[in-house]
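Worked example 2:
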Amino acid sequence: MTTYYTEAYLNNLAPDGNIPAGVVLANGAQWTGPTDNAAQNDVVRMVRIPKNAVLIDVLLSWTATGANHDVQVGTSAGVDSIMNGFAIDAIGAMSLAGGLEGTNDLSTGLKASSDIRRGYKFTSADYLTVKFTGASGFLADAVIDAQVLYYIDAGMDLATDPG
């Protein structure tokens, strides 16, 4: 098993930490398969997720990869802590808020008891991973794009008007 890292992950590219609580933030990265293909069980760390981030959505899109290309989406809690596995054979996209396009139903991939769901608060810094579980791994030059939408919960009631 090989672990790959996006430039965004390696360089800790993320929105500025001085953003006021409650503002929706997006952290994203794109990864292109290596020239020798990624193998089954290889993992890509896509983006970092900051402490106190409250998950709004995970968006993933990919180019066509051919037959037998499946993935799991997760965090440090487990490579399948968000999505247990789904096919990415044809060009498509997924969103926790809106399902899958170009592949199975969202219910096919979501775990019956997902560890990480919309509204989940990360109590420590974390990261988003994509694991290739299909027999064919991931093709060279195929592309995965990932976005994590979240807001920072600073421990205050965001509905309270201080004025």
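The chain is about 5% helix and 40% strand. The chain has one domain: 3-152.
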